[in-house]
Amino acid sequence: MAMVCLLDFEAYAEKYLPKIAWDFFAAGADECSTRDENILAYKRIRFRPRMLRDVSMLDTRTKILGTEISFPVGIAPTGFHQLAWPDGEKSTARAAKAMGTCYIASTYSTCSLEEIAAAAPGGFRWFQLYIHRNRAVSRQLVQQAEALGFQGLVLTADLPYTGKRRNDVRNGFRLPPHMKLKNLEGAFEGDDRSEYGLPPNSLDPSVTWDDIYWLRSLTHLPIVIKGILTKEDAELAVRHGVQGIIVSNHGGRQLDGAPATIDALVEVVEAVRDRVEVYLDGGIRKGSDVLKALALGAKCVFIGRPALWGLAYKGEEGLQDVLRILRDEFRLSMALAGCASISEIGQDLVQFSKL
Amino acid sequence: MAMVCLLDFEAYAEKYLPKIAWDFFAAGADECSTRDENILAYKRIRFRPRMLRDVSMLDTRTKILGTEISFPVGIAPTGFHQLAWPDGEKSTARAAKAMGTCYIASTYSTCSLEEIAAAAPGGFRWFQLYIHRNRAVSRQLVQQAEALGFQGLVLTADLPYTGKRRNDVRNGFRLPPHMKLKNLEGAFEGDDRSEYGLPPNSLDPSVTWDDIYWLRSLTHLPIVIKGILTKEDAELAVRHGVQGIIVSNHGGRQLDGAPATIDALVEVVEAVRDRVEVYLDGGIRKGSDVLKALALGAKCVFIGRPALWGLAYKGEEGLQDVLRILRDEFRLSMALAGCASISEIGQDLVQFSKL
Amino acid sequence: MAMVCLLDFEAYAEKYLPKIAWDFFAAGADECSTRDENILAYKRIRFRPRMLRDVSMLDTRTKILGTEISFPVGIAPTGFHQLAWPDGEKSTARAAKAMGTCYIASTYSTCSLEEIAAAAPGGFRWFQLYIHRNRAVSRQLVQQAEALGFQGLVLTADLPYTGKRRNDVRNGFRLPPHMKLKNLEGAFEGDDRSEYGLPPNSLDPSVTWDDIYWLRSLTHLPIVIKGILTKEDAELAVRHGVQGIIVSNHGGRQLDGAPATIDALVEVVEAVRDRVEVYLDGGIRKGSDVLKALALGAKCVFIGRPALWGLAYKGEEGLQDVLRILRDEFRLSMALAGCASISEIGQDLVQFSKL
Amino acid sequence: MAMVCLLDFEAYAEKYLPKIAWDFFAAGADECSTRDENILAYKRIRFRPRMLRDVSMLDTRTKILGTEISFPVGIAPTGFHQLAWPDGEKSTARAAKAMGTCYIASTYSTCSLEEIAAAAPGGFRWFQLYIHRNRAVSRQLVQQAEALGFQGLVLTADLPYTGKRRNDVRNGFRLPPHMKLKNLEGAFEGDDRSEYGLPPNSLDPSVTWDDIYWLRSLTHLPIVIKGILTKEDAELAVRHGVQGIIVSNHGGRQLDGAPATIDALVEVVEAVRDRVEVYLDGGIRKGSDVLKALALGAKCVFIGRPALWGLAYKGEEGLQDVLRILRDEFRLSMALAGCASISEIGQDLVQFSKL
Where is the FMN hydroxy acid dehydrogenase domain (chains A, B, C, D) (predicted)? Predict the structure, then answer.
């Protein structure tokens, strides 16, 4: 089977992963409207490609928070990589480094931050944080991440509680016994691990904007907030001093009915007025999707499920394949749209279809 | 089979109910466009969820006409509950009381109002009225309801004649002989019971707005009008002194081509300008639908078919399951949208998709 | 099989008619977009139904060109009724008379105008004219129709040439040898009857607006023009002195890509400003479709294919069934929308869905 | 099997061509959205047909760059005609001449320009140019085309690199060994012919608008630029002195997400303001599509895949069939829309559907 586009990796993963793992990765909240809209929304955006520009030299490099990446596609934080590949997040870290891009490691990793850091020394990584009721746990993780060389802290804002994913309920999904949330080992007493390997309700639903100041007090890392979908929250984020915003609906896994991220991006970018960097995740399946997101103002995009499919295919090597395909498709799309470098990608490159 | 969402109850009911009963409950007028639009219209509404608000304490309580309910979902009036479960409306009354919400008992109940009242003493109930040609019948029912402690009178305005439901015609639907419209027993002479267990044309198609005054003269109960779909009728309702309006198209069973209730809600709420309470029924299948309706100005929603599916599943217990799922989904949706209480739900929480 | 709605008659006709006849009646031009749009366009129109109006007495009567019909649905001109039922147009004439409505007999009838007139003496009929290259043929037909008591002359304007209906080409459709275009017998010399039973190109494609004056000189009958789809042509029709306009796209059989008639109606009605009566054919399948057309300004609608399905089912009796169902559905829709008579049907009863 | 419309030829070609050849001709970039939109976009355009105009004499002739063609449909440049029919482009040239229209021969022909010219002496032909890195190759081809009597030079602007066509990648598509790109024989050294029969990256991605001046210096032929989709590029094309613009997205084979050509046409025509001629290719499947394109301002349209289907059916004769069907459908559409000649086709003949 030739792996030509990201959908080939999806088909592979669906075929070879255990159903319970596939269902967990594929899950969306409720009726999965938002999950599916993330993808469909790209199809309603049309390019306005420009011709006869010199595209013999193509440069896909960009910088996020000052660090160069080889092309504007990073790895979004997702949990439980060992469900996809035995080496788990260690493979992810290696693939991201090999491809010269950024990997956001999740609090819910099945490898520890030390293991991740050791697997790919010098790699460009951010750490994604869920704030737990036990704030000491969170503080420790943030400080550990900084100490290990992670270069950014990503606060997930859209999960005060876990969304209702019907198939996970039906399957009674929980992490297999031989996998651990390594970053949280020992953090909780007792044996109940029924909620994704943690005691129920261990996350803190009382987190507010003021907790950005608390995080600020813990670390020198730049803070990126993930899960913003409105101009109002974008403004609040800027005012509370974050360095970046990831427009995200958690892959459609939290509030079903939330807008597609590419649709929400427009509103957020307009509100932010270049004061901080804006990124996006959700629905990226082709290089041209990346180009559309950049044209609408994203500095970089992140992939979630496609990275997991790559891992499921061949671990580090499979994820590199996924990233390489996206990079090559993105580069080709740039050329066919008349852009030789990232700086030439502007808003007049796209228009929303009236349909 | 795990009962995870309301659609599971629908599938159960379709599988286990006699076809003629299923068809009757499922029926819509003509091509069922309006019935189906009731559901589809929700999918065109997008949330604008807000992040980083303290949602550790969630309060779903609200009041309708001054009475508190534990969450803003009541039981819409539907007929013939014994078709779904042997105990019929008695089970419905018990489930509604147990879950702390309002049950609107139909004129076309297969249990009498006394039986309903006795089944769940102290429960919060309204009585739904069809006005019959024989006005004495209607007067007696209204006064009986008031005497039995029903706390509101709901006048159905959209059924001067019964809509054309093709499958009911094909099936030659009529109530099985062992079931009776208990509230109307003895009200009509003769044996012809061919129209839903009643003599044909027993409803009065000459009812007009002035009959609100007549009802007013019969009872001290607040009057709620059900079946309003336009701003003009909303204005008339307010002027005629009703206390509440249920935006309803009778589940799409009357005039096919009428708008989805969530679409009509906007126009009605705007016209009413908070002078009376506005409710809605039709198409509620998930907690997020409830949240959308409240964001657009409904004080409370009512469920029709899903209640029947709950009954068909396990009677009182099944209906409690349905209500509990809706309540939990609603609460989770509130939290994920950044609302800790009903009063925080506002119109800026939603927007209509351009598609 | 219960005949509950018009689609039941369609299914019957498709099942029992010879394929070549079914295909001919069902045919649309090219890809049948316009044929199908005629129906789909109704689904995009929403009612704004009004409640609590006295609808105990319902009156569906109206007048077209001064003659009363019992409800606003007539029989559109279609050819070759013997393909559907042995008695052909004689059955059609009887059914229309029995139901108290207007029948527009086609030039391409398989019964002669005399036979049609004799089959239902005193019936309300108009005669539909195609102008042939041999103008003497047309003159004679017009004068014969007037002499036989036809009360209106309908000029079809949209068939300078016959549209391309792929299945008819594939089937090599022609009239069976035992059927004749009785009104045109002897009108043409030679044996070539390859185009719908006539010599090829017998229709005159050079007809222009001035020919309205020529028709005017031949007859005292009111002239109705059929096939108008634009405001410009509506204005020309009024200026040339016609008494009525039928908004029609020939059932989608001529120019594929022409608008649905219910969409074009709005533009035509606006241009005509009540100076002449406006009718519509195309896509009427339910009583509520009739109500929508009247709300948008049509004085009456005409049915084409549904009449043929009625004939195919049981001749005169089957067509009466079709008309009766439409009448009853229309009456019920009126009542449920709050209209007791035709004069109460206004434009505020409908709105175009944004979708 | 009767060949009634162009889709019949498509079905034939899909059935009888080797899969690898069918896939190559059918291919679109990525998800084929643009390829499919090219066709779907026509369905969103409605005619505003005019009635009672004298259409007894129909004239479909027009001129492009001063040369008369018998109807406004030419043959777009496509490669590798021997994949469809053994005689390849020689058959194409003969069919185009026989039908009195223009054939744009591709750089990637499997017959040489001499063979093409000799096959149909005196035929009206343009030559399509890809500019190669080796500019001498391109210069020679242009001068050879002019010497051989080609009357126009068409520069393809939208292929700095080849689009990603998934099936071609899966199939490992390359030209069979017995076929040659005759115009490029001897132009490249070495044996690697892996990219469509050429060495990889032989096209020059550094071509810019200034190269129009270079082409101008090589030939007296009028220059037409193909692949323009925006008003900005249309303005640049006019300013750089081209004589014509073909609005094209390369049949959806280059940048997936580019607009349908009929949608882009409106913007280009408006920008050009009649300073040069505007043509279109992409999605033409029926005569009414041609009429829509002309109504929106195209001087002429070109067909790509349908020409190949015609070749695959019966070579020269099959392509004539395709052209004849399109011509007859176009003529009939003109008549049914009330246009007797090309000059009567105006913008008020169409409107974009709101849906």
Answer: 1-355
Find, among B202, B158, B205, the residue nearest to B183 by Cα.
Answer: B202
Instruction: Reduce the secondary structure of A325-338 to three states and give it as a string.
Output: HHHHHHHHHHHHHC
Q: Which residues contact D304 (CB under 8 A, 6 or more apart)?
A: D76, D77, D78, D251, D281, D282
Tell me which residue in B2, B47, B335 faces A205 most closely, judged by beta carbons: B335
Q: Average model confidence (pLDDT) for chain D?
A: 96
Find all residues with CB under 8 Å of B263, minimum gap 6, and list them.
B37, B41, C46
Say if residues C3 and C13 touch (Cβ distance below 8 Å).
no
Residues 229 through 268 of chain C touching chain D, CB cutoff 8 Å = 229-230, 232-233, 236, 254-259, 263
- Closest approach of A327 to chain B, Cα-based (Å): 31
Say yes or no to pLDDT of C185 above 90.
no
Whether D193 has a pLDDT exceeding 80, the answer reads: no
- Integer Cα distance of D35 and D33 in angstroms: 5
Euclidean distance between CA atoms D124 and D221, whole angstroms: 13
Subunit contact C229:D288, Cβ cutoff 8 A: no
Task: Please state whether D30 falls in left (phi above 0), alpha (psi between -120 and 50) or beta.
Answer: left
- Encoded tokens for D207: 């071509």
Q: Using CA coordinates, name the residue in chain C closest to B209.
A: C52
Are B48 and A259 inside 8 Å of each other by CB? yes
Tell me what the mean pLDDT of segment A243-250 comes to. 98
| A340 contact D CB<8A | no
Contact B286 A229 (CB under 8 A): no
Distance from CA of D336 to the nearest CA of C (A): 6
Beta bridge partners of B132: B203
Higher pLDDT, C206 or B201: C206
CA distance D61 to chain C (A): 19
Burial of D122 (0-12, 13-18, 19+ CB in 10 A): exposed
Residue D331, Cβ neighbours under 10 Å: how many?
A: 20
Catalytic residue check, D132: no
C60: chain B residues, CB-CB within 8 Å:
none
Residue of D235, D237, D265 whose CA lies nearest to D249: D265
Q: pLDDT averaged over chain A?
A: 96
Q: With beta carbons less than 8 A apart as the criterion, state whether A70 and A95 touch.
A: no
**A50, A71, D116, D180, D258 from A350: Cα distances, Å:** 11, 20, 40, 39, 9
Question: In whole angstroms, what is the distance from residue B322 CA to residue B324 CA?
Answer: 5
User: If you ran DSSP here, which 8-state letter would residue C48 be given?
Assistant: -
B267 within 8 A of B230, measured Cβ to Cβ: yes
As beta bridge partners, residue C104 has C126
Interchain CB distance below 8 Å, D333 and C255:
yes
Contact B178, B164 (CB under 8 A): no
Residue at C348: amino acid letter: D
Annotated binding site of B for FMN: 77-79, 106, 128, 130, 156, 226, 248, 281-285, 304-305
Residue A331 one-letter amino acid = R
Whole-number Å distance between alpha carbons of B152 and B142 = 10
State both tokens at B81: 């509950």
The count of CB pairs under 8 A between chains A and B is 87
The pLDDT, as a whole number, for residue D155 is 98
User: Is D4 within 8 Å of chain C by CB?
Assistant: yes
Name residues 124-143 of chain C within 8 A of D (Cβ): none
Q: Supply the DSSP string of A30-58, one letter for each residue.
A: TT-HHHHHHHHHHHTEEE----S---SS-
CB C272 within 8 A of CB C238: yes
Residues of chain B with pLDDT under 50: none
Interface mutation target, options D135, D156, D233, chain A, most CBs of A under 10 Å: D233
Chain D residues closer than 8 Å to C45 by CB: none
